[in-house]
Amino acid sequence: MLLTLCLMTLGASLPGVVWAQSPPAPQVYEARVTRVSDGDTVWVQPLSGGRYRKLRLEGLDAPEICQNGGPASRDALAQRVLRQNVTVTERQRDDYGRGLARLRHAGDDVGGWMVASGQAWSYRWRRSLGPYQAQETRARAQRIGLFSQADAELPRSFRQRHGPCAF
User: Which residues of 126-138 are buried (b: 16+ CB within 10 A; e: fewer)?
Assistant: First the structure.
């Protein structure tokens, strides 16, 4: 009971998460990546069939496609997973109806790989530096990808100043 209460409280503090009773059980399935929209959004086709699904990678924030570093981030993700089979762990939906998911490819957590490669930031909320804080710290120390640029701007700040990309 205490665990359920703690999880519900945690869920209420995460953006875009609404749980009526208890957190939903994650859906785990194999899928083929059919499209990469940007550095944190992919389309997949479940290998078992069914409709295509638009997923946002959980735990990271990649530059907007119209932001400096956006095309490079998208291209890095595409090079890694486009037309590849991945294991999807989909937990819930975001405010835009996309499934929030973790992807695994060739034994690696794709979100962690994106942050470690300097192609995205660990997703921050409230005081938390997010689940990929250690990968981001190493990428910053090595000055790779986005972290080699002195003027790299968090996507959240970019969206607040410019709004979403008009694509």
Answer: eeeebbbeebbee
Joined together, the tokens standing for residue 130 give: 């997010």
How many domains does the chain fold into? 1
In a domain, 1, yes or no: no
pTM, 2 dp: 0.81
Given the residues 53, 56, 80, 102, select the one marked as catalytic: 56
For the question of residue 156 being annotated catalytic, the response is: no
Give 28-80 pLDDT, tens digit per residue: 999 999 999 999 999 999 999 999 999 999 999 999 999 989 999 999 999 99
pLDDT digits (tens, 9 = 90+) for 71-105: 999 999 999 999 999 999 998 888 888 889 999 99
The yes-or-no answer on residue 161 being catalytic is no
Rounded CA-CA distance 29/86 in Å is 8
Catalytic residue among 53, 74, 80, 98: 98
Domain of residue 89, CATH code: 2.40.50.90
